[in-house]
Specification:
Largest sheet: 3 strands, parallel
Number of strands: 3
Radius of gyration: 22 Å
Strand content: 5-15%
Number of helices: 8
Low-confidence stretches: 178-198
Number of domains: 2
Strand order of the largest sheet: 1-2-3
Length: 198
């Protein structure tokens, strides 16, 4: 959508309520072969509630490295404050059950300056397994596989979880950054993308 069209829509928004539905279109009805979940995932049990957690010790400003233990404690405080649970495990159980299949969407496209924090992803996996979700049911994913390869992951951090991407590579990104031609180079040498990521 062009910017001018967007501005026109904004200008017309106040008039939207003055029009009546005279077309006779019936109300929307959802048709699905699946039964509604007993506990719907969205918008979640605490819609609109925000919890802020701060610590001056979470990042060493001289090195830029995050402190795993401090991040873990901050996430625990935040989850307990959000849910009102007495323990961190009980707080995570408000959202997850052992039967769940969990996908963790990470951001690796901004590597090396803006990516999902390893410490947060790792602690999320640790808490999920702590409430009984098997490692085989936890997936970390990103849009492009070459971004996952560059941006790193939680591999080597105690959890052999699956990593997936919707596409092998972003062709435009590879052209802009020829030094990041890893996926193509490894295919030429007969090494599969999955083996390279592991």
């Amino acid at each position: 959508m062009h910017r001018r069209s967007f501005v026109r829509l904004l200008a017309a928004a106040p008039l939207a309520g003055t029009f009546q539905n005279v077309s006779g279109i019936p109300a929307l009805r959802v048709e699905s072969q699946y039964a509604p979940a007993a506990t719907p995932g969205m918008p979640g049990p605490y819609p609109g509630r925000v919890v802020s957690v701060k610590s001056e010790k979470c990042v060493d400003v001289s090195t830029g490295r995050a402190d795993d233990a401090v991040v873990r404690e901050m996430m625990a405080r935040g989850m307990r404050a959000l849910t009102g649970a007495g323990t961190t495990s009980d707080a995570w159980r408000r959202f997850f059950a052992p039967s769940d299949v969990v996908g963790i969407k990470v951001n690796c496209g901004g590597y090396p300056h803006c990516i999902s924090a390893y410490e947060i992803v790792t602690e999320t996996v640790r808490q999920l397994t702590g409430v009984g979700v098997p490692v085989s049911q936890i997936y970390v994913y990103e849009r492009f596989q070459n971004q996952m390869a560059r941006g790193g992951s939680v591999r080597g951090r105690g959890h052999a979880i699956e990593h997936h991407a919707a596409r092998v590579a972003n062709a435009d990104e590879d052209r802009q950054h020829p030094e990041h031609e890893g996926p193509r180079r490894h295919r030429r040498h007969g090494v599969s993308e999955e083996r390279r990521l592991r």
